[in-house]
Amino acid sequence: MAESKKPTAAGKKAAARSGTSPAEKKSAASDAASATTGNGSASSTSATEFVVLDNEDPWTEAELSEQRSVLESESHRLRREITDSEAEMADLVQSDSDTAGDDQADTGSKTFEREHEMHLTSSHRDMLSQTDRALSRIENGTYGQCENCGNPIGKARLQAFPRATLCMTCKQREERR
C-alpha cells in the first residue's frame, strides 16, 4: 500500500514563493524534509511548524535555539535581580524601623528608596512572567502567533523582542486605548 505524504507548512511556503533563488528553494526543501519523520507525519518539535509572515523564511532550528538561549539567559538574569531586589527591600525595611533621630528628608528618602525597589521588583517579576510564557510558547508550538488574532507576529519582531505576544496591528490597537 502506497503511503501518501502530506505537504508540510515549509513545503507549501516554498511552493508558494515566487522568484526564489535555487539555493533558497533547496533550503526550503531541506526544511520541509526535516519537518517530517520517517512515517511522513510532522515532527512535534520542528521549527517549521511556527507561523511566520508571508515574506519571511520559516524558523530554523538554529534560530529557535538562539531564541531559547536568549530567553533562558534573560530568565536567569531576572531571577537574580528579583532576589537582589528582595534582599535590598528587606534591608530597607529593617533600616526603616530604626528611624530615631531622622528628620523628614531622611524619612522621605528611605520611603522613596523602598518604593523604588518595590517597583523594580514588580517590574522584574512581570518581565520574568513574560519570558517564561515565551519559553512555554516555544515548547508548545505557538511561538510567533498573535495571542489576540492568531496571525503571525513576525520573525524580525520576535528577534528584536522575544517576549512579544501580539502582532504589530494588535499591539498598535492596544496602545491606542
Give an overview of the whole structure.
α1 packs antiparallel against α2. The chain is an all-alpha fold. It contains 6 helices and no strands. The longest helix has 37 residues. It has a domain of 85 residues: DksA, coiled-coil domain (Four Helix Bundle (Hemerythrin (Met), subunit A), Up-down Bundle).
Descriptors:
single chain, 177 residues, mainly alpha, disordered N terminus, 0% strand, 62% helix, Four Helix Bundle (Hemerythrin (Met), subunit A)
Oligomerization status of the protein chains: single chain
User: Quick one: biggest sheet?
Assistant: none
Number of helices: 6
Could you state the CATH homologous superfamily of the domain at 61-145? DksA, coiled-coil domain
TL;DR?
It is elongated, with a radius of gyration of 24 Å. The chain has helices spanning 9-16, 22-34, 61-96, 104-140, 155-160, 168-176. Helices cover 62% and strands 0% of the residues.
